[in-house]
Amino acid sequence: KAAKFHTSAPISHGIKRVGVIGSGQMGLGIAMVAANVARLPVVIMDVNKEQIDKGIKFMDKLLEKDVGKSKITSEHAQGTKDLVSTTQTLKDLRDVDIVIEAASENLAIKTALFADLDKECKPDAILATNTSSISITKIAAATSRAHQVIGMHFMNPVPVMKLVEIIPGLATTDNIVQTTKELATSMGKTTTVVQDVPGFVANRLLMPYINEAVLLLENSWASAEDIDTTMKLGMNMPMGPLTLADFIGLDTCLAIMKVIHENTGDTKYRPSVLLQKYVDAGWLGKKSGRGFYSYK
Ligand code: CAA
């Protein structure tokens, strides 16, 4: 079987050091591929030390699994671990060439964070966000360097999924788009460039599909299992839409659907009442132990 990761160091762009904000599933995955594939030093910043420890443990487990499957050598895995450092303070991002933010999907949190990053990071640093639906232009407006702010939307699980959507904001310059694309490529990803429209492309297609599946369930027109089996066996999807929604998080699906609905004003994007109810109940999918399926 072909090696999963490049083992050379394909650094052809200006990025020499990466900062990642957030050590949850997305942040950790992004940091891991930056170190393991692009071979770049990465500093992960998260205010929550417990979350950092959990993330690093998970990364070590994934690396060990790849060593066990002879996808990478143990020296390569150790090299990856050595490239990753962690911090709880933004000041430690002062010498990175790009920050990739993967914090909570909340406009107020992101704009406050980007205003702080603008102050702490060196003037030529690129500020990228992994937002799945918030306007890049809005986030950029919280900084004094809107031309250097860009969307870099990774898919979950980051080490496995090959796509990164690159989203320039209104003011983002072409050279920033180019550098960001090159970085994503060196991380082993294929890029697409998408305008700053609600849901970009990935979620503009995925979330109405998931929402439509929830509407079928809400109306009792088919069981959850039969809806998922239809798409798995009928369309060769790796997961049915309801399983996928549980895997993404129902709160995330609802939030994205709301952003698309509110920002387009188009009723065709109205979130399903059942999706809202599940979120209200705290049934958020895999992470909470219950969504459309039970995970206990
Ligand atoms: N992190 C890292 N690697 C993971 C992983 C994780 N969380 N979960 C699974 N993997 C790896 C496994 O280790 C395994 O690797 P090896 O081949 O090296 O052993 C590989 O993925 C396949 O895993 P499994 O055999 O256990 O299971 P699978 O065949 O069902 O694959 C899956 C799992 C890749 C997640 C697959 O089910 C899948 O492709 N699901 C759909 C994922 C998807 O659509 N993601 C996009 C979500 S939307 C999004 O992210 C955008 C947004 O803004 C909401």
From TrEMBL:
Gene3D superfamilies: N-(1-d-carboxylethyl)-l-norvaline Dehydrogenase, domain 2, NAD(P)-binding Rossmann-like Domain. The record marks 153 as: Important for catalytic activity. Residues 199-295 form the 3-hydroxyacyl-CoA dehydrogenase C-terminal domain. Pathway: Lipid metabolism; fatty acid beta-oxidation. NAD(+) binds at residues 22-27, 46, 105, 110, 132, 156, 287. Pfam families: 3HCDH, 3HCDH_N. Keywords: NAD, Oxidoreductase. GO terms for biological process: fatty acid metabolic process. It comes from the Eukaryota. One of its GO terms (molecular function) is NAD+ binding. Residues 18-196 form the 3-hydroxyacyl-CoA dehydrogenase NAD binding domain. Transmembrane segments: none annotated. SUPFAM superfamilies: 6-phosphogluconate dehydrogenase C-terminal domain-like, NAD(P)-binding Rossmann-fold domains. Belongs to the 3-hydroxyacyl-CoA dehydrogenase family. This is 3-hydroxybutyryl-CoA dehydrogenase. It comes from Umbelopsis ramanniana AG. The lineage of its organism: Eukaryota, Fungi, Fungi incertae sedis, Mucoromycota, Mucoromycotina.
